[in-house]
Fold:
Amino acid sequence: MMAVDSVLLTDLYQLTMLQTYHAEQMQETAVFELFVRRLPPERNFLIAAGLEQALDYLENLCFTTEELDWLANTGRFSSSFLAMLASFRFTGTVHALPEGTIFFANEPILRVTAPLPEAQLVESRLINLIHFQTLIAAKAIRCVLAAPDRLLVDFGMRRAHGAEAALLAARAAWLAGFAGTATVLAGMRFDIPLFGTMAHSLIQAHDHEEEAFQHFAAAQPGNVVLLLDTYDTEAAAHKMVALAPRLRAAGIQIKGARIDSGDLAEHARRVRRILDDGGLTEVTLFGSGDLDEYRLRELLDAGVPYDGFGIGTRLDASTDAPTLDMVYKLQEYAGRSRRKRSEGKATWPGRKQVYRRTAANGAFSGDVLGLEDTPRPGEPLLVPVMEDGQRLHPPEPLAIPRDRIRAQLAALPPVLRELQPAPAYPVDIAPELRELAARLDRDRY
Amino acid sequence: MMAVDSVLLTDLYQLTMLQTYHAEQMQETAVFELFVRRLPPERNFLIAAGLEQALDYLENLCFTTEELDWLANTGRFSSSFLAMLASFRFTGTVHALPEGTIFFANEPILRVTAPLPEAQLVESRLINLIHFQTLIAAKAIRCVLAAPDRLLVDFGMRRAHGAEAALLAARAAWLAGFAGTATVLAGMRFDIPLFGTMAHSLIQAHDHEEEAFQHFAAAQPGNVVLLLDTYDTEAAAHKMVALAPRLRAAGIQIKGARIDSGDLAEHARRVRRILDDGGLTEVTLFGSGDLDEYRLRELLDAGVPYDGFGIGTRLDASTDAPTLDMVYKLQEYAGRSRRKRSEGKATWPGRKQVYRRTAANGAFSGDVLGLEDTPRPGEPLLVPVMEDGQRLHPPEPLAIPRDRIRAQLAALPPVLRELQPAPAYPVDIAPELRELAARLDRDRY
Structure:
């Protein structure tokens, strides 16, 4: 198995640039901001997620002897540079959107203010950590919006991109309002509620489906959810009805039934009828199999009687928009604002702040991307979270960002809560920011 | 930072099923096979990758005291079951396609033969490990096919889905023929060549671009690749030409230039002309920025003078096909073949083998999916790799599967090596397998 904790989770060029900064003694304060350049066309808003893991990373960053020896053996680095790395720590300041904050294109999610080498080295992993959870939170919230009153469970571990993706997808989905996850380690690590039913293999390993149902119920009497579609879904529903009185006599209630293949709508209607006719009106129906927000919306619009859903692959890999255009850019160095002017990738320079205006009823009424030192009306969204390399607050219990998302969602213009693409939420660029950019374009080359 | 090594990287239902097997003493031998049900329309073939990590996982699988205590505290499991877990190990046999073997839909990549609980528990993580590397190898090989004689480097860490994805993507891309990766830890962990240039921030942190070039070259004299597009790409190329003699006088050769934005074709042509006119004909051009196999093909078909490319986000997230329909299914238990018959998801039962026929010149001429105990003409592709829970061979040096891929690619029908969708490679179902499936359908319910 693989441990993935290492300061060497970075791109080689970060180290070669650090060697340049070291040689030239460029240690002055740099300001980098992390933001998304454009939203995917399939997303009307994003939700900041992953800050806890990012702060954890920054607090613990250091080079081990083994890593330093390995770097030395590459022959790429000077001994004076390696000696500096031996005592390397992150000592900077971090401002960020609290996890669960809704944001839009070009709005900084996180700002790092630190000596240039420290702020530079952390780019790759900071993006890696915040990109993924932000990506998944955005996908998960769309599932919640499509099925707001249903039980949604993350089933995606097996086709998540590796172990860390599986764990962090479970976390991000829970923040976004999922009821829980099937991934056991995510339950242990993040205290997220766990859900699970049975797989087809349990049915197949028995010679008779009824026997499999009975054995499963006896071994797990508090959580009897039976999988119906291994052979014939409706026949299995009839077997459930026949089995229920025997289980009741043994003090066991069947809690639910899962359908995982075929026409999920038609099977649910038929199974619901069979169960209701058999007196199992309390038994809930749970659907799974290639689900996402679009499919959920279809099923619920058609009035299909599912009480909950397992959302797997399409959640954990965010298949309709599997990446975000998230970047981390230098905005100031040694007291001077800086601007990248690459075609199609120019940045807004300087230390920025997002000012969010709200109407009297709390509804979001437009953001201004401005400069930190020139306040604008509205709530400044970036708040200090780390100073001198230390967190300012203990990690938030996950319920707090989860509630924050729910509150922010209620304040979002309703058209942005739709699944289809909506006109962009208004994010104005403050005139002083435009002026700063224009001045830099004139002055510098 | 997060460690991700744990037997609890599994779905909850594996544990609840194991509790059922424990209660019913269902410990007989089970045979599970891992395969891809359908290829994505964008893929004409796949390449087995990730076996090493899967074997590592199986060899080291065990429950820690902390994990057992946590499971006990959930209240879901009996003390007798937890006592069994305390001594749980994987003791089974594994057959697999060697890493780097080309395969198609329905062909087993891996077969686990073990007592039912052992074979069941490992499902989630085995898929998670093999799915991702197989996914990335397929994407990477398409980049190699699009640009076979160019230097290709994995640049995707920052937008890979987490740390493990970044590391394993670097590994899978190298297997598929990439020259290396930018991810330092992948270089250390897997001994993959590392590549890196500089970021825009290094340029921006200097007051003058020339000065940034000069400092970088001085600090990294053996690997001077300059990034040209921070402000004005052609102006930067002229600065390179002006700088070159001064660097030469100091014994430093400029090795390459990177272009990362704008019209990559047009800029490359202009920069090449500027460099050639300035006597820098040896300097190579390296392109990056939202590249994938389609874009590479376009650039090279148009004769754009790039010598190499950094492929990032679209490789590490395999954005045009971000998941595979990979599953792990029970095919036999207690000596009897088993068949799942779910609509659209029925499996071919029994212990299977893939027989690959080749023409006299070595070209692949069609596969047969048959039964292990009924040999068919052709090479049997699944080979034993683990017995009694122990590897049969030490891990292969990565150069071996890398060479295997190259050899297999040469044997693949040329139409399948094209980027556009091709008619499916012929995979016949052996008559005895069809008969077995039909018999199970008649006999069992």
